[in-house]
Specification:
Chain lengths: ~400, ~350
């Protein structure tokens, strides 16, 4: 296959389908759930459970762009509303973890409910703690093996858990919790455990009030002697003191590898929010008679035209980096570097694009009558979640310099 | 299906051109810059690779493998070796491709076989004009019809003018519409003044004055409406965008390797985040700019109008290349400022992309 920018028909169909969903189901309630921060957006959740999760129409057996399609879907839905996207009843990041490290039996046990009828349910992933964010190897939540019952006993506190309310409270869902089985083993001792919703010992302590993505529930969860069967451990129980490199157990590194798949999605989410703002600005300014003259010489271009062109170029660069990282996944190739590039680029570019959009619209942009100010608030999370800008720069730098993390931290 | 990997065939071309750039262009880059001249031996050797000829029509001795995307891959690799030499090597395309796209059968027959032939034949396109408010779509140079002749007036700049050049393609406005005219270098009324610029020092260019230059009506490219200047400009912007990516990549790689070697405060400077993150940003921006450029090239290959995409690619690569090359000089510190290292030349060359138009085509 030569270099090509041609999306398959199925991808285009998905794009159109999810754009319609975004337009009809998300935008009309976007402001409402930004204002009613901790309220469940029932109309959206129900819609997704009944209709949305069926996916886009299209020939199942037709050629498709694989993971690029997943990114296209994320972009469209986040063009609609990124917070509602995060509130969809799906396995989300928890599902990625189970999908990446789970056995077939575990996948069936935890993920099949998401395909069943019943009521809407959620999945989540809890890594971050009050004392450990970027440095996820520093987590202190413990998992002690109880031989008598063949269970792990979890103790600790997790914060900033996206979809943590739904995943911990609604029967059928689950939270993937990172904990250490052996503090002395460092990274090698870190394992992840599937904690089904309503497991005794897991408590929803509260929900954060945030700058943006307010319709997304960001939970604090406490684990007090929370017992899960040993069969809920994802991956091998073996503790490798060398980070698992030689033993074949992917361990911490394996867990980190789920980010290679999730970072392109976060990047695509960012691109969706950025496009929402850019589309709006271009349309609104167009109504005022401002059109971008791509063929005008620099000396006659206005500052606004220059700004808009820059926003368009940066957004497209971010999108293409995202698709490249996604395409590598479909091709079964490593994408650690490319995923971080996409995430770093999209997170920052879209933060800047949405901030510029508010500026270009003047008082109108600043007003809560329009959604532009919301998009600016929403966009910023993409520069923080799934590895901050700096953490992704670290990953890129280690890759291009061929440095182990011990040389650049 | 969306794909960011070159085909096997493209990959082979890239490999060939990359090793040529590494073994021939890079070692000669500094000497050419200091001596303000291209190395004729290198131009001949590059010609044997058939990079330009490959994209010309088979009917005139070419390879018939025209692809803007492939053209971008080639342009990036050559520019990675050295920008001046790259522009010299690809200059035959400045005549060859417009003739292919818009020329009459007679025009093509008059020049294409020679361009595709055994010996290197430089080409030239006179597009830019020496004015700060130059508008590429509305050149001030004019062409007035007089019987079965055109009379050309005006001043062009940044016109490649290598030894052995026989004709130059001059862009001038006929009424409101820009058109391209094949003008012999020895035409009466045509005067040249050698230029000297901050960068691109090895590429001989001239300011070209056209004072009542008369050419036959048949010298105009294209029958009927003439040449599609929009497309020509787009092809130029896409080619130069790739070259900007190539220059940036060259500078970035030198900075990256230097940062791993150079020690300060007891450790390689690359272990400091201020340096490492700068390098990470450079790598990311280079890749993003390259993808934008490829997309514009791919659209060209689909026959689309790329005015927008080429303008965006240009805007992006111009700034990216400048930032990256400036960053490379910074990473090398004082050494970056010394002409022993290439980044200072890259910085001088990269700044030019904001002015360059039509110096290369895909
Ligand atoms: C809305 C929201 C949703 C979230 N959802 C989830 C979730 O679902 N699951 C989950 O586990 N977590 C989640 N998080 C947590 C998120 O991943 C962390 O906030 C993030 O990783 C940063 O960690 P921190 O907040 O502790 O910041 P810190 O790690 O304290 O970082 C503070 C600053 O220091 C910088 N920094 C840190 N280390 C370095 C370094 N080595 N070099 C240079 N700079 C550095 C960071 O870039 C940042 O700018 C969420 C956070 C938010 C706000």
């Amino acid at each position: 296959m030569p270099i090509s920018f041609q999306l398959e028909d199925n991808t285009v169909l998905a794009k159109q389908h999810f754009n319609r969903v975004a337009r009809e189901q998300m935008r009309p309630i976007s402001r409402k759930y930004d204002e009613h921060e901790h309220e469940l957006p029932t109309e959206w959740v129900d819609f997704w459970w009944k209709e949305g999760r069926k996916g886009a129409p299209g020939r199942i057996d037709g050629p498709n762009d694989g993971f690029v399609t997943v990114c296209v879907q994320a972009e469209e839905l986040c063009w609609g509303d990124a917070a509602l996207y995060l509130r969809m009843p799906t396995p989300a990041l928890g599902g990625s973890a189970v999908g990446a490290a789970g056995t077939p039996e575990q996948k069936e046990r935890f993920l099949s409910h998401f395909r069943a009828d019943g009521h809407p349910i959620w999945g989540a992933m809890a890594i971050t703690e009050p004392g450990a964010g970027s440095d996820s190897a520093a987590i202190e939540t413990t998992a002690d093996y109880d031989e008598a019952t063949d269970e792990y006993v979890l103790n600790g506190t997790k914060i900033f858990c996206t979809a943590g309310e739904g995943a911990s409270q609604v029967e059928g869902g689950f939270v993937v919790v990172w904990a250490t089985v052996d503090k002395s083993a460092g990274r090698g001792g870190i394992k992840s455990f599937v904690v089904p919703a309503r497991t005794p010992g897991m408590t929803l302590v509260g929900l954060e009030k945030k700058l943006g993505i307010r319709a997304s529930d960001t939970a604090t969860l406490r684990f007090e002697d929370c017992r899960v069967p040993a069969a809920n451990l994802l991956g091998s129980a073996r503790v490798s003191k060398k980070g698992g490199k030689k033993t074949g157990d992917k361990g911490f590194k394996g867990a980190m590898a789920t980010f290679d798949a999730s970072r392109p999605i976060v990047a695509a989410m960012a691109v969706g929010v950025g496009r929402a703002a850019l589309d709006f600005v271009v349309e609104e300014l167009g109504r005022q008679g401002v059109v971008i003259r791509y063929d005008a010489p620099r000396t006659s271009q206005t500052a606004i035209e220059r700004d808009l062109m820059e926003m368009e170029a940066e957004l497209q660069a971010a999108r293409l980096l995202t698709w490249r990282a996604a395409k590598l996944i479909s091709s079964g190739k490593p994408n650690n570097l490319e995923a971080s590039m996409a995430k770093a680029k999209a997170g920052l570019a879209v933060t800047q694009i949405t901030q510029k959009a508010v500026e270009l619209l003047g008082p109108l942009g600043y007003s809560r009558k329009l959604l532009v100010e919301k998009w600016m608030r929403d966009a910023k999370i993409n520069d923080i979640c799934e590895g901050t800008q700096q953490i992704n720069q670290l990953i890129i730098a280690r890759r291009i310099l061929d440095y182990p993390s011990s040389m650049l931290r | 299906m969306i794909d960011f990997e070159p085909s096997d065939e493209q990959a082979l071309i890239v490999e060939t051109v990359r090793s040529f750039a590494e073994n021939e262009l890079r070692p000669a880059a500094r000497a050419c810059d200091e001596g303000s001249q291209l190395d004729p031996g290198i131009l001949e050797a590059a010609h044997e690779l058939g990079l330009v000829a490959n994209s010309l029509p088979e009917a005139f001795g070419g390879g018939g493998e025209r692809s803007a995307v492939t053209g971008c891959l080639v342009a990036e690799e050559l520019a990675w070796g050295d920008l001046s030499l790259a522009l010299g090597i690809l200059s035959p395309a400045l005549l060859g491709l417009p003739l292919t796209d818009f020329g009459s059968e007679a025009q093509r027959a008059s020049l294409l076989p020679a361009i595709a032939g055994d010996a290197y034949r430089p080409g030239s396109l006179a597009l830019l004009e020496p004015r700060f408010d130059f508008d590429v779509y509305h050149p001030q140079a004019s062409a007035k019809r007089d019987g079965d002749e055109y009379i050309l007036e005006g001043t062009k700049c940044f016109v490649p003018w290598q030894e052995g050049l026989s004709s130059v393609l001059v862009v001038a406005s006929e009424g409101d519409a820009p058109q391209a005219f094949l003008v012999p270098c020895d035409a009466a009324g045509l005067a040249t003044e050698p230029e000297s610029n901050m960068g691109l020092r090895a590429l001989p260019t001239v300011e070209l004055r056209l004072d009542g230059v008369r050419v036959p009506a048949s010298a105009r490219l294209g029958e009927g409406a003439g040449a599609d200047l929009r497309q020509l400009v787009g092809r130029g912007r896409v080619a130069l965008s790739s070259m900007a990516v190539g220059v940036a990549r060259a500078s970035y790689e030198i900075a990256r390797d230097y940062a791993r070697e150079r020690e300060a405060f007891g450790a390689p400077i690359a272990t400091k985040q201020a340096i490492a993150f700068k390098l990470a940003d450079m790598a990311t921006e280079i890749d993003g700019a390259r993808l934008l450029t490829w997309e514009a090239a791919w659209l060209l290959d689909q026959g689309a109008d790329v005015t927008r995409e080429a303008a965006l690619a240009r805007q992006k690569t111009v700034q990216m290349a400048l930032d990256v090359c400036d960053g490379a000089v910074q990473v090398l510190g004082g050494h970056g400022y010394i002409r022993d290292y290439l980044p200072e030349m890259h910085l001088r060359n990269a700044r030019g992309f904001s002015s360059f138009e039509g110096l290369a085509l895909v």
